[in-house]
Amino acid sequence: MKTVLIFGASGQVGQALVELALQHPEISRVVAPTRRALPQHAKLENPIVDFEQLPTDAPWWKSDITLCALGTTLRQAKSKAGFYRVDHDYILAVATLAQRAGTPTFGLVSSLGAATSSRIFYLRVKGETEQALATLGFSSLMIARPSLLIGGTRSSARPLEAFGLFLGKHLASLLPRRYQAISTHQVAQSLLAACLSDSVGQHIIESEQLQR
Among residues 78, 122, 169, 179, which one is catalytic? Predict the structure, then answer.
């Protein structure tokens, strides 16, 4: 039986990860640190944390699998520096503490097109985060790169994303599979399954693979 540590549990993919982990027969304990309390569950431990001052010695850092779906937008972050703080620094902070505690497997929700050489700031940050994670020494590193996500109602509006999803849904048959919109449930299900497989090494799961 495994313990799974999940970050970003209040977001769309994070919520799906928590739901799937709580239902999974191989998982006996789910720890989901958040800023605000989550609904209670017998298998769920929900520490309330400040990501600017994470508790470095908390016993819950040690898990069998750490899953990270942390992320924001430039609009929410209000600046490139603020975006980088969440999508790079926060993720590296939780990954470093999990690895130091002995966690062997780390799973990240990244983005289609993530690359350190990208001219698009968003994708360049995603690529830099992936590159930094690869240096931490996890036995297994699983990186999911979904296309546009289809899920529940967000806590904040994302007009450009909504427009992209509209096009993605109505033009799906004309788009290569990699660029078709994908459900948050599919992303969460594929990433969790990959992390439970105990495959050694770094593995990139592109969007078309997440849809299987």
Answer: 122
